[in-house]
Design goal:
The chain is mainly β. It has a single domain, classed as Jelly Rolls. The radius of gyration is 15 Å and the shape is globular. It starts with a strand and ends with a strand. The mean pLDDT is 88.
């Protein structure tokens, strides 16, 4: 598991399309099947331990959540996330409730460093 703090990672200003006040961070590049899910956690909700079927980025959009994988268990706030490699046994949940997004790609090369 790799922890990602999206607010701390260096983003590049968007210069196209008459943009202003916007920056972008390329997280990675993938190949194959892609799936995107929202995952809503009730207080105390969790998804139990299972192997990742795809390379996966788990983003916390609202609230606080936790993730557990090969690197142990980490607490995540809004704007943070983790990367799980295909096959990694992992679980995730939230003590107080959270809204998250999961990006799953059959082959995802993470391009950011932590």
């Amino acid at each position: 598991m790799i922890v990602l703090d999206f607010g701390a990672l260096p983003a590049v200003p968007v210069r196209d399309f008459q943009s202003r006040g916007a920056s972008s961070l390329r997280l990675g590049e993938g190949h194959g099947d892609v799936r995107v899910h929202t995952l809503h956690f009730d207080p105390g909700g969790e998804v139990g331990t299972h192997p990742a079927g795809f390379d996966q980025i788990f983003f916390v959009l609202k609230g606080r959540a936790w993730a557990e994988g090969d690197g142990g268990r980490v607490e995540l706030e809004s704007g943070q996330g983790v990367f799980f490699a295909r096959g990694e046994h992992h679980s995730k949940g939230s003590a107080a409730g959270a809204l998250t997004i999961i990006l799953q790609v059959s082959e995802l090369t993470l391009e950011v460093s932590t």
